[in-house]
């Protein structure tokens, strides 16, 4: 919903905006959907001017169609495959994490999801020398554990510090700060977080269900809508900035009928919103 | 003096705005009829006629997007490879279009049909991809504006016969939240999109396939009777009025029909319900599984 404001495009001055508002045209969508001739008469403005304004606004706000061939060329040149550091995991993921895609890890509590993510973060920052953004919503990330994993890879203290510097951690505990953080990253934060010559290649969110589960259930719609928003911004980030996004979800089975019903709804929508999935089994 | 000049200017502009002969021809000339796009899915001898909407409904993992890739390839491939050489617009609302997967399906079909060298294969692939237009939308307002914008593409490209939307239900929850407690307000945006789509269908005679995610999982158990029918359409009335053919996609239960020859491939079923203008409904069920080369019907 984009409100009409004067100065949005050449020809749209304050007088015209007021005239349009009097004719009950408040947003760009209203203007584009209405009959141009009738509107030109009601607002006593020339048909040509109004048509030109409509064309400019449409070009500014509609999504632009791209040819499939161009899109494919762009994808070939910008997609990278990041190894996770674990060869059997790489095999499962068809050679690694693809940038531009969301890879979701879901599993019961204690099945190793966070450890996998630590491993991925350490591998990308140390071996691939690229930056990682780690969004921690559960408080489960400690620098000590990352250091321990790095010490297993190299004994050079300088390299360890360099690798740790490439992992940028955000600690948030509710969905609104999560959305704020993700939008901030999309709007220039990713470039600012690129340190030491590399660029951000992976965004890990541990975990999405911790911030969304409290909002699901009952008659509220907000939870589902916020979940769609989180999924949308993660996907946009993945596609536009060529990063691999890894949200973590907790998959639980409950006996209570009403709880499992809303969880199923939530699970369905979340699964529909994400791309590749990988189920964590405690014995794998 | 000025009013006369203004009137002349407006007449000039109107002459520009009204259609040129070529545009009128492009609009009225019959677009490629897609009745034969996939006869195995539709009952009788039917496929979607001009100006008809097909909805693919199902929960995640039931093959809806794969079916769209299958139909897309069928349209853009050259006649020699079993295609219809028609142009396609793909409206992607939830970033589910995987170009790499699409190209691998296209290449395997071209290989199977034409069996030419790798270089000309690339050329063939590129020419197929040039018949595809992809648009990404991130909200239902943007979807509305984009459909208006696409009207230009429809009028200038008479080869455009198919519009694929994946998926039309992507903005259901954000719209519901924005509309607050008022049901009419919740459905307003999608209703406007559906009405515009209806007008585009009448004016340009294209065919539309749209996927719709199920929001309730269907249970297979004794508790299923206490929940509402999971396959009941939940989108707004304006959209449901447009839908002529409804394909319900689901996973086939792993029963005793898992023959060793079929391997461990998941079989997916599609149940088609086509409502005709006389009010009668025709049904057809088919099943398929997904291979590296795309959808294979059993």
Provide an overview of this structure.
The complex is a heterodimer of chains A (284) and B (298). With 284 residues, chain A is an alpha/beta fold. In chain A, 52% of the residues lie in helices and 14% in strands. Chain A has helices at 14-22, 28-33, 36-42, 47-61, 68-78, 87-92, 113-126, 143-153, 157-165, 175-192, 208-212, 222-241, 257-273, and strands spanning 66-67, 81-82, 97-98, 103-107, 131-136, 167-171, 200-206, 244-250, 276-279. A six-stranded parallel sheet of chain A has the order 6-5-7-8-4-9, with helices on both faces. Chain A has a two-stranded antiparallel ribbon with strand order 2-3. In chain A, α8 (143-153) packs across α9 and α10 (175-192) runs parallel beside α12 (222-241). Chain B has nine helices and nine strands. In chain B, β7 and β8 (281-291) form a beta hairpin. The radius of gyration of chain B is 22 Å and the shape is globular.
């Amino acid at each position: 919903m984009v409100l009409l404001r004067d100065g949005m495009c050449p020809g749209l001055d304050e007088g015209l905006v007021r005239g349009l508002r009097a004719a009950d045209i408040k947003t760009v969508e209203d203007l584009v959907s209405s009959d141009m001739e009738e509107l030109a008469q009601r607002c006593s403005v020339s048909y040509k001017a109004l048509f030109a304004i409509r064309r400019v606004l449409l070009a500014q706000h509609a999504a632009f169609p791209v040819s499939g061939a161009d899109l494919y060329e762009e994808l070939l040149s910008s997609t990278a495959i990041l190894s996770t550091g674990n060869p059997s995991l790489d095999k499962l993921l068809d050679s690694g994490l693809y940038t531009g895609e969301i890879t979701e890890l879901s599993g019961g509590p204690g099945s190793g999801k966070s450890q996998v993510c630590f491993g991925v973060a350490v591998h990308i920052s140390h071996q691939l020398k690229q930056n990682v953004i780690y969004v921690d919503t559960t408080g489960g990330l400690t620098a000590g554990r990352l250091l321990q994993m790095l010490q297993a890879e190299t004994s050079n203290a300088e390299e360890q510090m360099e690798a740790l510097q490439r992992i940028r951690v955000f600690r948030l505990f509710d969905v609104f700060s999560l959305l704020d953080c993700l939008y901030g990253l999309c709007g220039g934060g990713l470039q600012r977080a690129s340190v030491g010559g590399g660029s951000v290649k992976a965004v890990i969110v541990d975990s999405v269900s911790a911030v969304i589960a409290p909002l699901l259930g009952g008659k509220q719609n907000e939870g589902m809508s916020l979940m769609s928003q989180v999924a949308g911004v993660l996907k946009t980030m993945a596609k536009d900035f060529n990063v691999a996004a890894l949200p973590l979800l907790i998959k639980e089975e409950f006996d209570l009928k009403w709880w499992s019903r809303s969880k199923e709804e939530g699970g369905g929508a979340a699964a529909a919103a994400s791309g590749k999935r990988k189920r964590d089994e405690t014995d794998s | 003096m000025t009013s006369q000049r203004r009137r002349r200017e407006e007449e000039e502009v109107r002459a520009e705005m009204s259609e040129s002969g070529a545009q009128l021809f492009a609009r009225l000339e019959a677009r490629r009829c897609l009745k034969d796009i996939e006869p195995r899915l539709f009952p009788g001898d039917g496929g979607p006629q001009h100006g008809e909407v097909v909805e693919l409904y199902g929960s995640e993992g039931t093959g809806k997007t794969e079916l769209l890739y299958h139909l897309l390839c069928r349209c853009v491939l050259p006649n020699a490879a079993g295609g219809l050489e028609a142009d396609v617009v793909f409206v992607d609302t939830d970033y589910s279009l995987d170009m790499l997967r699409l190209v691998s399906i296209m290449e395997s079909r071209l290989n199977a049909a034409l069996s030419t060298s790798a270089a000309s294969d690339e050329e063939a692939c590129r020419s197929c991809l040039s018949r595809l237009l992809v648009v990404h939308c991130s909200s239902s307002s943007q979807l509305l504006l984009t459909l208006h914008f696409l009207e230009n593409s429809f009028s200038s490209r008479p080869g455009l016969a198919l519009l694929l939307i994946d998926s039309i239900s992507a903005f259901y929850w954000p719209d519901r939240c924005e509309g607050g407690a008022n049901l009419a307000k919740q459905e307003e945006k999608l209703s406007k999109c559906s009405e515009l789509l209806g007008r585009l269908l009448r004016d340009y005679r294209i065919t539309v396939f749209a996927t719709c995610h199920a929001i309730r999982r269907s249970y297979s158990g004794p508790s299923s009777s206490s929940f509402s029918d999971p396959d009941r359409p939940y989108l707004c009335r304006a959209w449901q009025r447009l839908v002529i053919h409804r394909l319900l996609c689901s996973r086939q239960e792993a029963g005793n029909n898992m023959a060793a020859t079929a391997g461990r491939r998941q079989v997916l079923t599609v149940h088609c319900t086509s409502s005709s203008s006389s009010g009668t409904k025709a049904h057809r069920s088919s099943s398929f599984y997904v291979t590296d080369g795309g959808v294979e019907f059993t």
